[in-house]
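Predict the 3D structure for this chain.
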Amino acid sequence: MKDEEEEVRKTGSFQEYLGTAQDTIKVFRWFWKEIIPIESKKKLRGMFIWLGITIIVSGLQPFAMGFVFTGLARSQGRVVLAGMASFAALLIILKTIDRFQQRCREWVMGLNWEQMDDRISELFFEKSMAQHTHEGTRLSVSSINKGKSRFIDMQGLLLFDGIPTIIQLAVSIVFLLCLSFVSGCVMALLIAIYVVWSLYLNFRVALVCTPIEKDWRKLNRRRDERWEKVERVKVCGHEKLEVQEMTATFEGIIRRDMNFWLWFIDVATLRSLVNSLCLIICASWGVWLVWKGAWGIGLLYPLLSWATRVSENAWKLGDIEHKVSWNMPSVKLMIEALEIPPAIVDREGAIGIDYSKPHRIEFDEISHTYSPESKADDASESEPPAALINVSFVIEPGEKVAVIGPSGAGKSTLMKKLLRFEDPTAGSVKIGSIDLRDISMASFRKGVGYIAQRDQVFDGTIRSNLVYSLDPKGREAVTDAELWQLMELLQIDFGKRLTNGLDTVVGKNGLKLSGGQAQRLMIGAAVIKRPWLLVVDEATASLDSSTEKLVQEGLAKVLAGNTSALIVAHRLSTVRRLCSKFVILKPAEEVKEGESQVEAIAGSFEDLYEVSPTFRRLADDQGVVIRARHQAIAC
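Done. Predicted structure below.
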């Protein structure tokens, strides 16, 4: 929503509007550097050369036709034939050259599109997961796609209309100046008047229509919302009220909109009259020269032809400028997002680790405080509270550790430090004895399996989702028998939904699967790479108790070997039988200065219940039964 509001920012003054030209230049410089490949630049130069030749040849045609008129006026057959032959030859040459120019243009369009698609994806993927979370508005897929499509429109506009129009105007003015200095100056003055007038009109459009556009969007959002939630409208009996209020709003907006465009039409008509006046002056001057005998009648045709071309193309400059200005905000928003420096990059000389065996993991005095700009877009100016405070514990090779705590205690934040979605503001995560920041992310993540809280099923088949985490060679090497064995192990039973075996299409976001099936499919996708570390974030939070039990059984089978695991869970039942170590995080706001947020570490729920008030509250709230050494305590 916010990116839409940013896209229609209001221009305050004419000087400010003219100042946007600098931003436009920066945008085109960015695309020239990032998006235009070397091969396209070569084709682009070729296109400009052929385009210039095309326009020059086109400009010579009226001159050739002028010989025909001269020959006819003087009854000179040879001159008429020479003129017609020249005209025909220029026409054939024009069509031949135009072919080369259009081919170059298509190459430029295709190459730029391909490079843009690749480069935008590259810049999008290089951002850390924390950046995608905290910069969700700017890095939103809809915003990036809108900027991309707007630039494609701009590219076509410039290559098909903008550049040809500018070159054609320049060539026509040069021809006119060579033929008649007075006529050339008149039409050059027309272009200057048109440019200034168009800038002013486009400024007025931006100044007046921007708030109108915002009001249209606001009204459309309200209408869409009421249509989508029609049940609430009808239950409240507000059908007529809604129509009345939206009609009144619509009438107010359309009145402002119509008044402006009626004014615009009047002013644009006046501008057209100036255009016609300049063309009349130019034609009259030529007629006067012919009448005096200073010119032959054959020169009148090229004069009128070139002047008409200037007259007809002058308005295009303003139209092109308006369309570029209209598309530019979305393009600039996209570039601003893509230019955000990636927060997580490998340090120079990053160390590769052996991803075939488990390593000791140490959380060493981890603390983290989000900066105000990294939080929500409407974050207040006050200093944000700490998300983690002095968290320290160890995951030994093959050990399964659960991190438990109330909502907001920083469990998922801690998990993100291990996956290096973002780095802590203090402390470090160590793999073996090496700081995670000194390790190559490719080598680390190749041995890590991750099961997200919300399943992330891709639109495709069961097979493609299961093998996605493997590299191309791994995908080719895995057999159907291995995939079926994994599905049996994890109880990935799709019943009647399995219509085409492993090649059954699951639909966008796994639409054709139930929640439990999708989550078990993601467990399979995580473990197929045989990770030495499995990170699980609330894997059963959104599942019913029956499905949760199946997912737990699948996880238990996966973790039965020497795989290390860090499991984040709200539901204590999820981790009780899976883990051998439990780390309790109390809320950060309860931590006193100099203390650790880790309230307790134990190997069983019974021990935790005796030493951790936070765990006792969670266990009591969830009705978990804790059996003490000598008595049963119902919780």
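Residues 376-380, 629-635 have pLDDT under 50 and may be disordered.
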